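User: Can you write out an input/output pair for a complex, sequences first and structure second?

Assistant: Here is one pair. Inputs:
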Amino acid sequence: MFRFLSGFGSYWMLLGRVFARPEKHSIYYKQTLKEFVSLGLRSIGIVTIISFFMGAVITLQTAYNTENPIYPTYLIGLGARDSILLEFSSTIVALILAGKVGSNIASEIGTMRVTEQIDALELMGVNSASYIILPKVVATVLFNPFLTLISIVTGIGGGWIAGTAAGVVTSEDYIYGIQYAFIPYYITYALIKTVIFAFIITTVSAHQGYYVDGGSLEVGRASTYTVVYSSVTILLFNVILTQLLLS
Amino acid sequence: MIRAEHISKSFDGREVLKDISAVFEPGKTNLIIGKSGSGKTVFLKRLVGLLDVDEGKIFYNDVLFNGLDFKAKKEIRKEMGMLFQGSALFDSMTVEENVMFPLEMFTNMSGEEKRDRVNFCLERVDIINSNHLFPSELSGGMKKRVAIARAIALKPRFLFCDEPNSGLDPKTSIVIDDLIREITVELNMTTIVNTHDMNSVMENGEKIIFIEEGEKCWEGNRDEILKSDCKLLNEFVFANALAKQLKDSLK
């Protein structure tokens, strides 16, 4: 319990340092552009592949679970669309990014800690927490909504290809289904969740990496804890946000 | 000048620094020696403010450093340079970017001025045509030299070196020692070097402090060290066979 409270306290104290006034905006701007590439652009591949296949599976499962003459087949497209929009492209993609981006951030910052690079920054008078973490937070919070949009489009596309190829739904019915009773607010809901999840992934993993004490073994451990803590936090906030935004 | 007064530090109830006082003079290479785990690195990190002190005062040119707020400390830190044990070069930056980093962060120099200063510093430490290499592509000695170049980029008044010779062969160690001594005189810096390398002690020991189990046991210079009566210091200095033979021959 004491360890949890101590970790919680140090997390908020770290955030206080992260959001302090940047020393030199031009340097932070350059760092943020680098992080866009490293944390954002380099995640497009995995998000696209996973979304495509998950969209395909969601469509096939919806089709096999609604095999009843009472249900019109366009409901397959509607079901796939809402599953992808409401849950998959924001929450599941966030969990995947907690593994990929989160462990990357924790190990990068942890390595900087154990190789005294953070001490070197502090000694120069640089606010190391802000210099290292703030560009990552800005990059993921701004870029992850694009990943979500890519995931939505790819997932629905994957469902269309799989559904028509397997013959469980016609192209016309699927396209009609994904347009039927569409609520635009669902996209807003997915994007709000994405922004909050991006913040959680980056700050939780940065916190784990920043306070590593020891060597490579501890860096590996921090990387593992990052995935566990950020995943649990994402799932917790998923419940809270769903209640707040959809009730 | 740096003055430390009655410095104490404990970790989890274990006292690692016990009431250490010392004065480090400008234009000189001041050495802190002692065996591994004696508290040298803790003392050095304490001096630069990377660790908080439990008791005691640290003065930089008569300004009480550990009484300053973050902003005022930052001003003094701009006058500090440090060579870390593992060099601590930024992995994601090239040699040029590493040396340029403090210039970009704290000066308003033009791009050309910054490049000139970087090239000057790199040439001073004898690193040529390596501006675009990454730290992972450098040898241990080159990393140390680049780290020295980065440390002197802002023309500091205080230079700190933590085990500058660790992991280096004897010949490269001498190069690094010579470099530290030369730039100390050139820039009239107050240089403090943590070491347990006896060759460094004999080459650079203008002022030496010996720490054993967190306590300052002896203070002197390289000429006095061989004649000292301090038992603990003698055990440390004459630990290897070659040094023992030297001592016998001196008798």
